[in-house]
Design goal:
The complex is a heterodimer.
Chain A: H1 3-7, E1 11-16, H2 25-36, E2 40-45, E3 71-73, E4 76-78, H3 82-85, H4 90-104, H5 110-119, E5 123-127, H6 128-133, E6 146-148, H7 150-158, E7 162-165
Parallel strand pairs in A: 1-2, 1-7, 2-5, 5-6
Antiparallel strand pairs in A: 3-4
Helix pairs in contact in A: 2-5
Chain B: E1 4-8, H1 15-26, E2 32-37, H2 42-53, E3 56-63, E4 66-72
Parallel strand pairs in B: 1-2
Antiparallel strand pairs in B: 2-4, 3-4
Classes of the chains: A alpha/beta, B alpha+beta.
């Protein structure tokens, strides 16, 4: 590698495939932190990660099939039995609890982290195929994103120091 | 005395680092920023941030869970 290559900023890409409240955190936390540490960051939003680019977010979690989701409750930790988790309203209640906890503990909301990511020039690519497949409209998405496919991602990934799939 | 102060008390990862970077960017090179945080993870994180970005950790202390970091902006 030439000296010039050594001097270029480090770079990272993340393929963002999940759009629930809990899974939205890792990509946005890593993207904003990396950007703050001088890393060029590209996020590629595909499949269920794509709705994270919508202007209006109302992210939810589900307790179903997640035995590791132990919520602090009444001085202990409780895991929701699947049989109860499947009832109408339980996911909405769990999502509300999670959002309350996030606010109380000084954890940033996904909306805040996304704004910060935009502010520090994190590049966001929306998967064109997913847009077509799930009939998303670009006008419902935030400004400043670009549309692209696997080749667009690969071009970025090939020259990046870190490539993650979340 | 640091040139600027950032009160990051009560904020959790990654907010103290992001806000620090935002303020450092506005400081002239060589000036210092004092960050006050309560996130216990900030001790390891601010050290890593400084090592990676080249900004200098001039001073740090822990007063009963309130962490102070004085960081000098590098070029």
């Amino acid at each position: 590698m030439s000296e010039q290559d050594d001097n270029r900023p480090k770079s990272m890409t993340i393929i963002v495939t999940k759009g629930s409240l809990d899974w939205a955190y890792p990509p946005f936390i890593l993207a904003t932190t990396a950007a703050a540490m001088g890393v060029d960051v590209t996020l590629f939003f595909t499949f269920y990660g794509l709705p994270l680019l919508k202007k209006k977010l109302d992210l939810q979690i589900t307790t179903l099939g997640n035995p590791a989701m132990a919520m602090p409750m009444m001085g202990t930790h409780m895991v929701m039995p699947n049989l109860i988790g499947m009832l109408p309203g339980v996911d909405a209640m769990a999502s509300k609890m999670m959002k309350d906890m996030i606010a109380k503990k000084g954890v940033a909301s996904i909306e805040e982290l996304r704004d910060m990511a935009i502010e520090c020039d994190v590049k966001m690519i929306a998967c064109q195929m997913t847009m077509d497949l799930f009939e998303f409209d670009k006008k419902d998405m935030i400004d400043g994103i670009t549309l692209g496919g696997a080749a667009t991602y690969m071009e970025n990934a090939l020259k990046s120091d870190i490539n993650l799939y979340i | 005395m640091a040139d600027q102060v950032l009160d990051a008390k009560g904020l959790n990862c990654p907010l103290p680092i992001i806000k620090t970077k935002k303020m450092l960017k506005e400081l002239p090179v060589g000036n210092t920023l004092e960050v006050i945080a309560t996130d216990p993870g900030s001790v390891a994180d601010f050290a890593a941030f400084c090592r990676t970005t080249g900004n200098e950790m001039v001073e740090q202390s822990n007063d009963g869970g309130v962490f102070r970091f004085v960081i000098r902006r590098a070029a």
